[in-house]
Amino acid sequence: MVICSQAAIDNGYCSESQRDNFIVPENETTSIVTHLFDGNSNDTFEYPINETGFYCVVTGRLDENTQYLITVDWQNPFGELPASEYPKLPVSVFLKLLK
After folding, report:
1. Mean pLDDT of all residues in 52-60
2. Residue 85 and which of 1, 3, 20, 48 are 20 to 30 A apart at CA?
3. In this model, does residue 80 exceed pLDDT 70?
């Protein structure tokens, strides 16, 4: 469980003021971004990444009757480069410079 739900509040993991947010230990420093979507709209959310690091997307329903479709689009400065091809990038750049 990572989102403060009614069950988490009932079990003492978080408070009512934290409802629908990530549960994070009090002394932990974090850069968590929480964004709630209106289930009746085609809302979008863009989060620009300015430095290399580990990024994770977590989704969850606020109630059992909610259905949704999520698409996460990861792009890097080189466009649509698959992660498996990234280690080959320096060689490709070097070969292009030789031409």
Report:
1. 74
2. 48
3. no
